[in-house]
Amino acid sequence: MLIVIGGLPATGKTTLARLLAARIGGVHVRIDTIEQAIVRSGLARHPIGPAGYVVGYALAEEHLRQGLTVIAESVNPLTVTRDAWRDVGVKVGVPVTEVEVVCSDPAEHRHRVTSRSIDIPDLRPPEWREVVEREYEPWERERLLVDTAGQAPEESLDVLLRGLGRVGGSGS
User: Which DSSP state fits 120?
Assistant: First the structure.
């Protein structure tokens, strides 16, 4: 199956995707990692446009065709990117579940943005102003919503796993 995790920076997407991948034995495809590798190669500078997502779609498709569960994680801010992830699953014939990760407490979210460390070499994290001003289209379709505010990462994982159980792998 394909599990697509999106949300603004510092909501807990990467932490949640890593925990989920470890729990279910899935492959974590992280767009930030792909984009920064492209930048380090010298082929582009931030923002690199759709290249990172296009590579991510191809990697997800390859892993899905091998029978692996893929957790695709990115901000995924636009309907066009959300549609493209869904199209990957449809093309391969696997269920797709979309997950939006939010942090509903603005003070906690801001603290996460300003205090987090980045584990990708040379990646500059966004500042709070950039996060709140970022283009982020509202989700107009069914998805699992995981609010990480006031929760330990393992608690958010439990919420996600319960949600995935309810969908039963049927997708969104």
Answer: S
Q: Which residues contact 31 (CB under 8 A, 6 or more apart)?
A: 52, 53, 56, 72, 73, 74, 75
Q: CB of 55 within 8 A of CB of 61?
A: no
Residue-level pLDDT at 85: 98
Tokens 């279910």 identify what position?
24
Question: Is 50 exceeded by the pLDDT of residue 153?
Answer: yes
Overall pTM surpassing 0.85 (yes/no): yes
Amino acid identity of residue 109, one-letter, is H
- DSSP codes joined into one string, 4-63: EEE-STTSSHHHHHHHHHHHHT-EEEEHHHHHHHHHHTTS--SS-TTHHHHHHHHHHHHH
In this prediction, residue 44 carries a pLDDT of 86
Q: Is 103 exposed, middle or buried (0-12, 13-18, 19+ CB in 10 A)?
A: buried
